Amino acid sequence: MVSKALTIAGTDPTGGAGIQADLKTFQELGVFGMSVITSVVSQNTLGVRSFVDMHEEFIESQIDAVFEDIRPDAVKTGMLSNPSAIAIVAKKLKEYNVSQYVLDPVMVASSGHELISQEARQSVKEELLPLATLVTPNLPEAEALTGLTIETIEDMKEAGRILVEEYGVKAALIKGGHYKGEADDYLYNGTEFLKFSAKRFDTKHTHGSGCTYAAAITARLAEGDSLNQAVEHGKSFITSAISNPLEIGKGQGPTNHWGHRLTTK
Ligand SMILES: Nc1ncnc2c1ncn2[C@@H]1O[C@H](COP(=O)(O)OP(=O)(O)O)[C@@H](O)[C@H]1O
Ligand SMILES: Cc1ncc(COP(=O)(O)O)c(N)n1
After folding, report:
1. Enclosing domain of residue 177
2. Where does the record place the Pyridoxamine kinase/Phosphomethylpyrimidine kinase domain (predicted)?
3. What digits encode the pLDDT tens for the residues 19-35?
4. pTM score > 0.95 for this model?
5. What SS3 state is found at 211?
6. Is residue 16 lining ligand 2, measured as CB closer than 6 Å?
7. Tally of domains in the chain
8. Residues with CB under 6 A from ligand 1
């Protein structure tokens, strides 16, 4: 029986980030992908132009349409721009007893454009963190969620600890893409810190890297991996996607969702 994964997120018409990146990643990892759209975003590799949020009732209707027909084995959320979208997603995750849930707390696109309102940041903390199996903030997102200023590896670990022990998420993966030095990420699972390392590649092709990474972890959780295994697989997928650039787009290009085929050949 094929495993199924659902992404609840915003769109990217150029296919590098958001829903499109998530579905490509699910497909590459052999998992049946499903999607609920929260916001339609006009963006490309040069930046975000504007976006239109789906009404909360329509987000609810899409989630019901999925769950009343095909139950996903794991769920990922990405762009949720406002408190009402967050509230309806939280309500539905509880109603459908979702136990494998990866929360990518998308806040600002790599181009610098805000994808979430200030009020919604508080809702992410209060309503979504307690439901999630894993939260995957980059450094600015970890700072926004915890109030810390993150300058050292110890600060990254402290952010993970706060997210788990004070805000109630089961595990936190603090991503080091925005850190100096190597691209090392730190997972705190409530008992130990695990480091997932990669060499930093000198590339501008990282548009959608956070989405792709979280989607790969979600796909592996849907397949029955433990959390540690899922993150290990996800890290290897995103590293291959960054290290085999496609050289498309006039700005910060997309990661390569076929990259793992080249790396594992
Ligand atoms: N230049 C790079 N070389 C290798 N890995 C990278 C690079 N930039 C980001 N990564 C990795 O890609 C993943 C996404 O990271 P990050 O950039 O922090 O997230 P986001 O896309 O949400 O801002 C992380 O595993 C990070 O370590
Ligand atoms: C719809 C949507 N969701 C998320 C991102 C963030 O992308 P990145 O992973 O590059 O920060 C994006 N640009 N668009």
Report:
1. 4-264
2. 12-256
3. 999 999 999 999 999 99
4. yes
5. helix
6. no
7. 1
8. 138, 175-178, 183, 185, 198, 200-201, 203, 206, 209-210, 213, 235, 238-239, 242
